[in-house]
Amino acid sequence: MEPRGLKLYPIEGYEIYGLSRNPFEQLASEGISDVESIHVYQEIDMRLSMIISEVIGNRSSIALSIIGPLGMGKTQRLKSIAKAISDSRGKAIYVKVDTNDILKLTRDIFYALKPPRSRTNIFLENLSRKLGFIDRLEKMLSSTQEYKSRDIAELLTEQMGKYPYCALLLDELENMQTAREQDKIQFFEMLRHFISNMPQGCIVAFACIPEAYEEYSKIFPAFFMRLHYEFRLRPMSIDEAYELVKKRLNRVRIRDTADPLYPFTEEAIKLIHELGHGNPRQILRLLHYVLSESAKHKFDPIDDYVVTTILEEPKSLEEYLTRIPKEYKDLVEIIVHKFRGGPVSYIQVAKEAKKPGIQVYDQLEELIRLGFLVGDPKGNYKVPEYVRKFLEGEETGTEEV
What we know:
Elements lengths: L42 H16 L3 E6 L6 H14 L3 E6 L5 H10 L7 H12 L5 H5 L8 H12 L5 E6 L9 H16 L5 E7 L1 H10 L1 H4 L4 E4 L5 H14 L14 H10 L4 H18 L6 H8 L5 H7 L5 H10 L7 H8 L3 H13 L4 E2 L5 E2 L2 H12 L5
Parallel strand pairs: 1-4, 1-5, 2-3, 3-4
Antiparallel strand pairs: 6-7
Helix pairs in contact: 1-2, 6-7, 10-11, 11-12, 11-13, 15-16, 16-17
């Protein structure tokens, strides 16, 4: 008799469902190598495919925007454009906007065009500065007073025109909202000039949340009139949610099943789709948590009753904190322990967490969408009422049962 190999399973015990692991852990599809196998295609994907074909086939130049709340797949669509341009031996500049400083943002765009600098290049560059030969671009990026929108756009056109195809892709453009209005006007004026004189075979695309998009379009309507397409992402339909679950589960199956949704029932997915409001990232978060908890308790199958049981309100402050996604837990703990549940501004939380204000703001907004925090009319953040009762119980020495 041949010796049998030892088969190891992860500690959560997903093997009871014939799964090697939890397939909903990766919330961002752009972080997955074979993303095409799990991406749920919507109308926007077909239209983007046609646009890319037009650019590559006819060397057209097109500008577009992608608008949608956090977690709707904006980044994935920009990354798909970048991949298509790169696969055609073009140059794709993808910049995740992480600043409200137009000088830094513009510099990030141009730096993405440069090859990695060697020590020799750095030495010569420093030497040229000492000798007084100041680079034209650097001079224009030395201050907002020196920022020449038209000249910067012409330089960008010149550099990107060196490639057969190119793309300028700006993600999370809402992070510019806190910039001075004059700065925003200067930056959008630069983009407007660039779009007006794009090289052949070029795509300009940016992604933004709806609130920021509306604000920007009021400040500088001339730029938005230059856009050829405006894509507004819609929530997933229930059928698309089914497809999402099937594709993710199929990647990690170690045992065949006649039901591609197993261990979930249709009713369970319907409830999760409803609770997630059709937002792909929220749906994935809920699926990840429900599957993880179900595996621990060996619930089989996972129906709507199981989902309701797992997602019901926590029974204690400790249980509430346990449910917070790990990447946001430190912020919630600050609000709970330092500010006794709030209300508190995102700036106060950012100072305590020693993190950038824009990053903290985005994370707190995401926690509101997930139901772990609530906002108030003044733009502050606080814990839900049931969590406040836990805190009051701690102060009086009693505990909610």
